[in-house]
Amino acid sequence: MKKINLYKIFAILFIAISVSCVDNNDFELPTMGADKEYANLKSLDEIIALYNGSPVEFTDDTTVYGYVISDDREGNFFKVLTIQDKPENPTVGLEVRIDDTNLSARYNVGRKVYINLKGLALSKYFASFQIGSLNGNSTDRIDTSEYLNHIERSTEIVDIVPTTLTIGELTDNHINTLVKIEGLQAQEKGLTYADPDPNNTSSVNRYFTSCETFESIIMRTSGFTTFKAHPIPDKKGSVTAILGKFSSDYQLFIRDTNDVDFTDEYGCNTPPTDATLSEVKDFYTGSGEATVTKNLKIKVVITSDLAAGNLHALSAFAQDATAGIALRFSEDHNLNLGDEVEIAVGGAKLSEYNDLLQLNISPSSIINQTTGTLPTPEVITFAQALTGNYEGKLVQIDGVQFNDNAKTYSGNNELIAECDGTPLTAYVRNDASFANNNVSDKKGTITGVMTVYKGTAQIYLRNETDVNFTEDYTTCGGGGTTTNTIFFSELADPNNNPNARFIELYNSGTDAIDLTGWVIRRYTNGNPESTSSIDLTGSTINAGQAFVIAAQKDAFETAFGFAPDLAAETGGPADSNGDDNIELVDPSGNVVDAFGVPGEDGTGTNHEFEDGRANRKASVTQGNPTYTFAEWDIWNDSGDAGTTNAPQDAPGAFTPKVR
């Protein structure tokens, strides 16, 4: 009897030890014989096709099948089962949300499963399709006591073949499927998969770069994984992962570190191939951001002048025989006008800034820098310059002059070839070495790099020698009229809405006045030279009527309920913050009316209307080229020099279009 009992004990221990040595993923739970026959069996893509923006609730016995690709044993997947429709070359995948853990013990990788959808729902979270229990406009996890009634294991277990893709080939159709990307390496050496601090359970993004296409992608790892403190190998190779997406970023979720197969030496060291600028620009498709997905280098000549200061040290223009482009550096560069440089552009991003195409690179991308030869400017007509077809190229335009030749270079400068033609803007930074010099009062040839700002062609002046004006200036405004019956009637800097600033002109005469050739000039703060101007050509001011010029059209219309007669631009004459000086100039260049004293900062003077209003007294019926305080009622935020300390709010305190 004792022998029998001992035998039983040994037998039980043997069975227990044998079972404990079996890997959870290999241990097969009992099944109920052969797979069932399902009357209403659907594929994953058929189910997902039912989604039209709102959760789909299933009320009949519809069954869907798929193959398990997730594994929660190492903690990077939590209470979720990810399945795809086919073992190889899948077309779709989704997540099954389950309120239970250790799911891989029952649903191992490669296992075919059947899901009875009755009582469940299909939803979409960002770009990920999910099956779970319906809860409003989303799905919750299926209850622990319920999911076994919905999900049945098939006897079929297959090898899942990951879809090999480049980063650029990834689409939303690959989300929740197993993918493989080769030639990857971590962007930074020496990192662990997540924060090794055991007290930090936050998920972590690590960035990887493809040495084949120079694109980058995120690997996201949970702070609960068993391998969070493991180092990412400082090598390169392939990553097999389940693809996810957050916002616009694709993300890789590995199941364990075996999914990272890095055995090659770290570094994308293959010598780059020569390419033209035109070939590089072709990577850009017209919107968003594009990556140069080939290992390329360009040889270009710098056509911008760093020393003159009319571009920031993060920016430059460059050109080769095929095209020109704006370069945007991550750090200040030291490239000078005429330098010939070789630049590695593999992985560089192409994007637009205010519609100007830029190649975004680092100074470390410069392979070689030497003194080169500037390209000969391409001679184009003024009309060709306005087309925008010469962006980034060094050009020469003959027969042009400054529309307003009584200002300095600082700010926007309008160039014209015909008095009534569309102007071409040359913007000059305040930091440029020639910003405070007066523009030329003659006519001639201008050289520069064609650029664009918010859809409008502009020309970048490298330095003041780009302006070669030697001919007599053509006085415009032959169709215009000079009269002193036009004058400033109201100036506005609303205390509660600086975007609603405006200038109001009034015509006290008996005839409508053609404003061709008329200009309003602004002298910012104490600047003795005009810093911006607006040409009123094309407008007419009727007899006994007011004419409103707004700094920002939309803001003005919102504040006052009607559109201005003319919209200027931010930083223009109508955008004064109340301490600037303004002049009205006729077609012959004569000052017809003035507010303030050029060269004198308005702060604390009798011509300050900061946060307020300057209103011409009703007794004034003509312009005055010399500012006279007695002609004005002025409200501001200081009350200095006889003005009234009473900030004015829009709309009630102002009367645009009413004299």
Brief descriptors of the model:
single chain; 659 residues; OB fold (Dihydrolipoamide Acetyltransferase, E2P); 5 domains; 46 strands; 7% helix; disordered N terminus
Structure explained in plain terms:
This protein has 659 residues and is mainly β. The chain has five domains: 41-157, OB fold (Dihydrolipoamide Acetyltransferase, E2P) (Beta Barrel); 163-265, Nucleic acid-binding proteins (OB fold (Dihydrolipoamide Acetyltransferase, E2P)), CATH 2.40.50.140; 273-368, OB fold (Dihydrolipoamide Acetyltransferase, E2P) (Beta Barrel), CATH 2.40.50.140; 378-471, OB fold (Dihydrolipoamide Acetyltransferase, E2P); 486-645, Sandwich (Immunoglobulin-like), CATH 2.60.40. The protein is 7% helix and 36% strand. It has six helices and 46 strands. Strands 1, 2, 3, 4, 5, 6, 7, 8, 9 and 10 form a ten-stranded mixed beta sheet that branches. Strands 18, 19, 20, 21, 22, 23, 24, 25 and 26 form a nine-stranded mixed beta sheet that branches. Strands 27, 28, 29, 30, 31, 32 and 33 form a seven-stranded mixed beta sheet that branches. A hairpin with a 2-residue loop joins strand 15 and strand 16. The chain is elongated, with a radius of gyration of 36 Å. The model is unreliable at 1-33 (pLDDT under 50).
